[in-house]
Please model this.
Amino acid sequence: MSEQYGYFNEIDAESCCEHMCLSFKPSSVPIKQRWRNNGLSADFLGDYLTTFFPKGNDQADADKKQALIRDAATYIANELLENAMKYCDDSGNVPNSIDLTLLPDQLIFTEINGISEAQKVKFQIFIEELQNSDPDELFMKRLEASAVSESASGLGYLTMINDYHAKLGWQFDIVNNAHKVTTQVMIKI
Model:
């Protein structure tokens, strides 16, 4: 049975629009090496995306729009990939993946990874707090807490909301006796 939170949309990206998916088997490469690849993967997704926004008659505006979209895509993809690495439970053999879907007026990032029962519970508590708080106030609270302890984060999600006006959604499932979390981030373009 699935549990959903926030703004979560079922999208059949393969039949509706442009999309790109990157998938990683969590245990195939040591985490230090995989961590280095997160930035490269995020940059790749951002660069790939800009090809759908060709230069127009107004070169300066086109360059600015491409840069803004690339920066947003790179930031969001990097945050999602880092979270997948930090909180991944590879014992369930759920592959990590990130899918970038381009719709006419929005970008949708869908990231999937395995998660332990303990991490699931902590994450759901954070999601509840996020949904019931002012994002600016929660950002400051979490920023102060992260100065004291690494365990009080969530700053990446809050930055997505505050800086990119992102809508976030989550779905928790059990697949082959393993917990799987799907995180979805939607931004207008």
